[in-house]
Amino acid sequence: MMKAQGIKVNENIFNSLILGHEEAGDMARSYGMLKVMKQWGLIPSQETYLTLACAYAKHGEWHNVEKVMAESQAQGLGFKDGDYLELVYILSEGGHKEHIGKLLALSHPETEEFSSMASHLVVRLVNSGHDDVAYNLVQYTVD
């Protein structure tokens, strides 16, 4: 059907499939999209790994978040501070705040870039009712 409409299979389509399977509660198929992607000759980028990690984070599957981060690192991509902060937000929204400290331990709060991104996240967190996480993030960046 996509060929008939002239739509090329690309990474964005697979990222959407990862999210769609996650929304349906089928995390095995979400993860399976990495293999299917490779079968189509596409190499998952950092964005795909982050999408998958966020899907696992939403469900509180910390061991799988770690697995995806390790796979990303093995591919020479690795997560950056902005990725960790996005995961902090997803964990907060999903009610899995117990893992946030583990993510922050991987970040670099001493950089100006981190402070800027953290400031934006604090606003998002407060607007979403996660004042406790926002407060802890401010404390983390100040210490």
What's the structural blueprint in terms of helices and strands?
Blueprint lengths: L10 H13 L3 H13 L6 H13 L3 H13 L6 H14 L5 H5 L7 H16 L3 H12 L1
Helix pairs in contact: 1-2, 1-3, 2-3, 3-4, 3-5, 5-7, 7-8
Give keywords.
mainly alpha; 143 residues
Short description:
The protein is mainly alpha-helical and 143 residues long.
Describe the structure.
The chain is mainly α and 143 residues long. 69% of the residues lie in helices and 0% in strands. It has eight helices and no strands. It has helices at residues 11-23, 27-39, 46-58, 62-74, 81-94, 100-104, 112-127, 131-142. α1 packs antiparallel against α2 (27-39) and α3 (46-58) packs antiparallel against α4. The longest helix has 16 residues, at 112-127. It is globular and about 50 Å long. The termini are far apart.
Strand count: 0
Largest sheet: none
- In the predicted model, the low-confidence regions spanning at least 5 consecutive residues are none
Q: What structural category characterises the helix and strand content?
A: mainly alpha
Give the helix proportion (percent range): 55-70%
Shape: globular
> β content, as a range?
under 5%
Report Rg: 16 Å
How many alpha or pi helices? 8
Order of helices and strands: HHHHHHHH
Mean pLDDT over the full residue set = 93
End-to-end gap? 54 Å
